[in-house]
Amino acid sequence: MGRAKPSSKATDDWSGIIGPALGLGFAVFAFGLSFGVMCIDAGGSVPKAMAMSLFVFTGASQFSAVSVVAAGGSAISAVAGALILASRNAVYGVAVAPSLAGSLPYRLFASQFTIDETTGMTLAQDTPTRSRRAYWVTAASIYLFWNLATFIGAVAGSNIDTEKYGLDVAFAAAFVGMLAPLVRSRRARRVAAAGAVVCIAATPFVPIGAGIIGAALVALVGLRPGTERAAPVSKGGPA
Amino acid sequence: MTWTLIIVLSLGAYALKAAGLVGVGVRDFPAPVRNVIALVPAAVLSALIVKDTFTNGHDLQIDARAVGVAVACLAVWRKVPLWLVIVLSCAVTGTVRAIS
After folding, report:
1. What is the ipTM of this complex?
2. Percent with pLDDT over 90 in chain A
3. What average pLDDT is seen over chain A?
4. Residue B5 to residue A108, Cβ atoms within 8 A
């Protein structure tokens, strides 16, 4: 999703923090709505959809789990695929840790909000104070909009014929948007293509959802040193 | 969509976030591990896209979804805002389904 532009002057002001944070909140609103609707469609309930958004709180993994369950996959496939996708948040945690120095309870609380958008915003700032503010303002904006949208989507979802309105492609469309910034390097593009091929080739033969885990194994090519960096965690990351 | 799944996923997702921010903190992962983790979303997201577009259970099929997702790709390439990408993709899929 979007990335904030760093301010040109290195001062501890709020410019370039609140606007982009609200913009990101608005952007996740559409994802949250689709998530709520699809969660109901996959046999969930409003409390279940809300529990996912409040506690799991990492969009791509939530989408992935619901998508596997909706396709008839096992809970193990759904959780494994979602957690593999969530592993990048561990890297984000390392990236934002210097901006979030503090007591153990403070860092444990902050951990819940370590996702794509907060990391991107935090790393885009030019002073430590601005980084910390960007983290918390973005966290608040995304958490609020994401959960509000999930709620509205889930409540509306019970009354919506998802196939009639083409909502069954909402996840795929969202995934396309999430994938685009990750495939700027040639290596990442090859890995993405190989992941797709592995998934399609495996689908007829493996349990539903297991193809996703197979595709994730393609990322192991990252162990081989490349001439270029793999998909960057974020601009200006702690590479 | 069981409660067990939701609880395990919640705990797992939180553990991963805290492992980075609290567990590793200002130290760092070795570069090869970082490379693998950075490449995982590209592999998994593209696999999810083809799964949601071309599969139905164990079957492979091409239907209205392919048109909708093609529109999404085009829209993302043309830098259309993401919420609009989703709306366009759904609308096209629904329309193709209605007229075919």
Report:
1. 0.88
2. 43
3. 85
4. no
**Least CB-CB distance to B46: which of A55, A174, A195?**
A195
DSSP 3-state of A10? coil
List CB contacts of A81: < 8 A, sequence separation 6 or more.
Answer: A64, A65, A68, A209, A212, A213, A216, B44
pLDDT score recorded for residue B71? 97
Alpha-carbon torsion (A27, A31, A36, A37), positive or negative: positive
Cβ within 8 Å of residue A8, ≥6 positions away:
none
3-state secondary structure of B23: helix
Residue type at position A24: L
CA distance readout (Å), B4 to A51, A82, B1, B10, B39: 12, 14, 8, 10, 29
Q: Could you report the per-residue pLDDT of A102-145, keeping only the tens digit for each?
A: 999 999 999 999 998 898 888 888 888 999 999 999 999 999 99
Contact at 8 Å (CB) between B21 and A94?
Answer: yes
Does A79 contact B9 at a Cβ distance shorter than 8 Å?
Answer: yes
